[in-house]
Specification:
Length: about 1050
């Protein structure tokens, strides 16, 4: 080891220059991380493949500016030098690139490594006096490239890529086997067919060329230095939070969601309003910002009127709520920029922009995002297309942020383009599972079926011959992740209840490629017409599916309960081997409970006597299970468990198990029976892992909602004559139970919807990051809760399975008994899973809304009776009301005043028309007044609305609702049964899309075989049926729980 010195010239927080001398040690044994190493390096972690034709060493400027190109998985064998890594790390304004570079190096799916060239004795280059930093960094990277070539004994050519033409001239001919070329030449010569890389390089290059061409006139105030922001936050002068732009008033209204733990202002107990883009000061929706509050005399209220178009109404004339804290952004702590989908403006608009330089203002699909200026030479070719762009910078001299295009999605309005837009806007990346990931899966075929490992029989508790195990799922379900058992133990004094969950983690090793992909996805994504699985189908639909009559591995929880009191006497956790005897569907199980004649498929081939005996045994088990579930539910009800509104749906399948229709699912007691057993298992597993690992357990809590969020619920209930107490979950549950209108069952339904909307989100967390009083689950009324019962579709459940295994080993003093993740790592994972869950729910909602619009798109609202429906008023606004349409499961705004100042008036027959007049809002009603008199619309009134589609060039299409009568829809009862529920729209749109696609069959399938097999289903799927409408409901219903 050789000792030397490094002299650093740094700047202090106050801007003073500081000269720092540090000891610097060089050594010979620095790992190269190459599979063709001849020197015996200790290469732990990722290793570069020996099958590649060459290795690539990018210099510091390429890493800083073109990292997005290097992120493409096709580019392999990349050696990032310590010099380039630190150049990005210490470059102010490059924090996003640095975080992405770190993620790239950690991700084993990317074939790249980090080489510590500045600690290698023979590659280290001291900086000469007077040598510029850029020249020194390029010299260091070239020296590292030469060392790599020599270290590998010339077995692998090394290509150094740089944008410095002087470096190409200086170094390109110095060493045989080490090639120095520009990144453009590298792509053209080595990757001529990788179109994505060429387009991305061209886009970034144009953006870099245009970067310095902004004007000098300042459009926004400069952001305060980091040290000033930090001091202001500590003193309470400033507050920090996340910027949330109101998409309906994106030009004039945004809110700062205050982070409570960092808020030193004790008078501040609500969000902060930011009015106008100037006060937003270049902050983008989702950014972490610092805000300075205005004096109270300048505080304003948020707008309470409905808005038909972004920024179309004058803010000075709008009705406002009570004044709330108002301020302006003075600094940005964290840029949370992502990929944005944009659309190019019409040709006439682009011609008015800077046509010569091809700098175009594109409009994001997300209305919360400002226009983005990009440089392109394809403005004409990309008309009417959706394009993915990234923001590069937003200087104080620019009205808009600058960015570059990444790729083209397709023509706007096409179904596949709009679906991909939804995925990208929610940061959902679901490529087909790679060959490397699929190679980790067990190989099964008809000739070589999967069999139980004899070694597993020894270490697992074998329940195949001792327990009657059965599953209860939707009709036709093939991906069964939970089964149940219940029986009386000898003596008759004790019942044994069992919940058996697919042992996914047996097949998915922690840290494997499949595990890393599942962690990245975090959940299975359910859209209206397809799903993207978290795990390959060989697991989710086969080996980890607890199908009837086959041996399967499971993780089980077995309770011994007192037969009379059902008190828990003993709990056993462990890995088991099961064989499900019956694969029941809900309707069949309910029929058996009622004593009806029902055919059980597994018993059809048996003789009468044996069949009757087995049927009696199964029926007795179902009755016993229902008895236990009633007891569990009653106990939670006494503690204040909530039953909030969720629309139930079920599937109709054809002989090939394809879903042909979606219809409302009638609530059955067996649904709640299965749900209670799953909740019970989740609760007891939470107890087990928390007690075993107090600082490192993954739980799920549901914080109590803020009382101000219940205002609409309380006021609406009061308007109908009900008192709604929200002081506790028990009081709320009791109030909702009593708020029933015998004349209109929709009243209670809508009140429960309002209660659901007031709820905070249930979140995963690490126990070491919260005090124990924060573990409580408000909706389920449980002191501890987690997710254990659906590891096929939720990564959180896989984490919990591993924690439970470690807890069992700890108790038995065998094997690995410590969690692999620290509290900090577990909390980071919890935040990642929470973010992905929110994205999944948002994508599901947006895809459903897309199909709703596609259903109505080709219908004439003036003629087609499908466009006329009964609606119920559930909220009053300053210029209209919000309504719910039970027939389609739709919610939307109905305006009583338009932009011309006209208001809706009602004739003697109830029909509505527009006339000049005024609107008066009251807490429980809204009235319009004109020459014809006064018309009033009250909460929970039934009215008739006409539904039409509002097209948009830039954003998603939306539905428009117009009141045409103040009376209920007259033909609602006489009409033949139509599509019931919003899920029915999916069926109709899919059918129409398939008819249109039939004419295009010669073009071949849109998706690869791997994508169809391992990523998504083509038609609506079972999971989406159960998940689609429960995104807000808090009850943990069988496999549909979202808590």
């Amino acid at each position: 080891m050789i000792k030397t010195e490094r002299i650093l010239h740094l700047k202090s927080f106050r801007g003073r220059k500081v000269r720092v001398v540090r000891e610097h040690y060089l050594r010979e044994e620095v790992p190269c991380y190459s599979a063709v190493c001849q020197a015996g390096c200790v290469n732990d972690g990722k290793v570069l493949s020996g099958e590649l034709t060459h290795y690539v060493v990018p210099d510091a400027s390429v890493v800083a500016d073109y990292l997005e190109v290097l992120e493409l998985r096709e580019l392999q064998g990349i050696v990032f030098t310590q010099t380039a890594f630190q150049a990005v790390q210490h470059n102010k304004g490059r924090s996003r690139q640095y975080n992405r570079l770190r993620g790239l190096l950690k991700d084993p799916r990317h074939n790249c490594v980090l080489f510590a060239n500045e600690f290698q004795e023979y590659s280290y280059c001291p900086r000469e006096k007077g040598e510029s930093q850029d020249k020194w960094q390029t010299k260091c990277v070239y020296s590292a490239a030469v060392w790599y070539h020599d270290h590998l004994a010339g077995l692998k050519p090394i290509v150094m890529i740089t944008e410095d033409q002087a470096a190409v001239t200086q170094y390109s001919s110095l060493n045989a086997g080490v090639y120095v070329i520009s990144i453009q030449d590298y792509l053209q010569n080595f990757w001529p067919d990788l179109q994505a890389a060429h387009e991305l390089y061209s886009s970034i290059s144009q953006a870099l060329q245009e970067k310095g061409s902004e004007g000098t006139e300042r459009e926004y105030a400069e952001h305060l230095p980091a040290e000033v922001l930090e001091a202001g936050i500590k003193s309470g002068r400033y507050v920090q939070g996340i910027l949330n732009v109101n998409k309906h008033r994106a030009q004039c209204e945004a809110f700062i969601r205050i982070e409570g733990s960092t808020n030193k202002n004790t008078d501040l107990n609500s969000d902060v309003l930011v009015c106008g883009v100037k006060n937003r000061n270049r902050a983008v929706h989702g950014d972490g910002v610092v805000v300075e509050l205005f004096p109270k005399s300048e505080w304003r209220g948020k707008t309470t009127a409905l808005t038909e178009g972004q920024g179309e109404e004058k803010t000075g004339e709008e009705a406002q709520s009570q004044p709330m804290p108002t301020g302006r952004v003075v600094g940005i702590l964290q840029r949370n920029w992502r990929d944005y989908v944009v659309t190019f403006p019409p040709r006439e608009e682009t011609q008015s922009q800077s046509r010569n330089s091809q700098r175009i203002l594109v409009v994001p699909w997300d209305q919360c995002i400002p226009k983005i200026r990009i440089s392109t030479q394809q403005a004409d070719a990309l008309q009417d297309h959706r394009v993915v762009v990234r923001i590069d910078s937003w200087e104080s001299t620019s009205l808009y942020p600058n960015g570059h295009s990444v790729r083209v999605l397709g023509r706007a309005g096409e179904l596949e383009t709009e679906i991909q837009t939804i995925l990208i806007e929610n940061c959902i990346h679901v490529p087909p599972f790679s060959e490397a990931q699929l190679r980790e899966m067990p190989v099964i075929s008809p000739e070589k079926p999967w069999r139980v490992d004899p070694g597993q029989v020894v270490v697992r508790r074998d329940l195949r011959d001792t327990h009657l195990v059965f599953s209860i799922d939707p009709r036709g379900c093939e991906d069964v992740d939970d089964t149940l058992s219940v029986h009386t133990l000898p003596g008759g004094e004790v019942l044994e209840l069992g919940v058996h969950i697919a042992d996914v983690t047996h097949f998915v090793a922690e840290g494997s490629l499949t595990d890393l992909e599942a962690r990245a996805r975090a959940t299975t994504y359910y859209l209206a017409d397809r799903r993207y699985d978290m795990l390959p189908a060989v697991l989710s639909a086969n080996l980890c599916s607890l199908l009837g009559g086959v041996d399967r591995y499971a993780m089980s929880v077995l309770w011994e309960l007192d037969a009379r009191t059902l008190a828990v006497k003993k709990v056993w956790y462990g890995r088991t081997l099961i064989r499900s005897s019956y694969q029941l569907h809900y309707e069949l199980a309910q029929a058996l409970l009622k004593g009806e004649n029902a055919e059980v498929p597994e018993l059809t081939q048996l003789g009468t006597e044996e069949k009757d005996a087995k049927l009696a045994q199964l029926t007795q088990a179902l009755e016993m299970l229902t008895h236990v579930a009633r007891h569990l539910r009653a106990k939670r009800d006494r503690e204040g468990a909530l039953e909030l509104e969720g629309v139930e749906v079920r599937a109709q399948l054809d002989e090939e198990k394809n879903i042909t229709a979606l219809v409302p699912r009638q609530p059955l007691e067996i649904h709640e029976t299965v749900a209670e057993c799953m909740i019970y298992a989740n609760h007891w597993v939470a107890r087990k892992i928390q007690e075993s690992f107090p600082q490192q357990a993954l739980l799920r809590h549901h914080p109590p909602p803020r009382q101000e969020f219940f205002c609409q619920l309380v006021d609406s209930a009061k308007a109908r004559g009900f008192f709604c107490s929200t002081r506790s979950n028990k009081a709320l549950a009791d109030s909702l139970e009593q708020a029933v209108d015998p004349q209109d069952p929709l009243v209670n339904k809508l009140l429960r919807v309002m209660a659901t909307q007031a709820m905070s989100n249930a979140l995963y967390f690490s126990t070491g990051a919260c005090s124990q009083d924060q573990y409580y689950h408000y909706g389920l009324a449980l002191d501890r809760y987690t997710h254990f019962t659906s590891p096929i579709r939720r990564y959180a459940d896989m984490v919990v399975h591993r924690l439970l295994t470690a807890a069992i080993n700890l108790e038995n003093a065998a094997g690995h008994s410590k969690p692999s993740a620290s509290n900090k790592e577990l909390e980071e994972m919890a935040q990642h899973i929470n973010n992905k869950n929110r994205a999944a729910q948002q994508a599901q909602r947006l895809s459903t809304e897309l199909f709703q619009c596609l259903y109505f798109k080709d219908k004439d609202p003036q003629v087609d009776q499908c466009c006329v429906a009964d609606a119920v008023i559930y909220a009053i606004r300053a210029n209209g009301m919000l309504v719910f349409i039970p027939q389609y499961g739709l919610k939307g705004a109905v305006y009583l005043r338009n932009r011309e100042g006209q208001v809706v008036t009602v004739g003697q027959d109830g029909s509505c028309e527009w006339q000049s007049g005024s609107v008066q809002r009251y807490p429980e009603r809204i009235s319009t007044t004109c020459s014809r008199g006064t018309s009033t619309f009250s909460l929970f009134d039934h009215i008739t609305v006409r539904i039409s589609v509002q097209a948009s060039r830039y954003h998603s299409v939306s539905l428009h609702m117009e009141v045409i009568s103040n009376k209920p829809h007259q033909n609602a009862e006489q009409q033949p049964p139509q599509l019931q529920g919003r899920s029915q729209l999916v069926q109709e749109v899919v059918r129409l899309a398939e008819e249109q696609a039939h004419d295009k069959a010669a073009r071949g399938p849109k998706f690869s075989k791997e994508e169809r097999e391992f990523c998504q289903s083509k038609s609506p799927n079972l999971y989406s049926l159960l998940e689609e409408v429960r995104e807000l409901a808090l009850i943990d219903c069988s496999k549909t729980n979202s808590m």
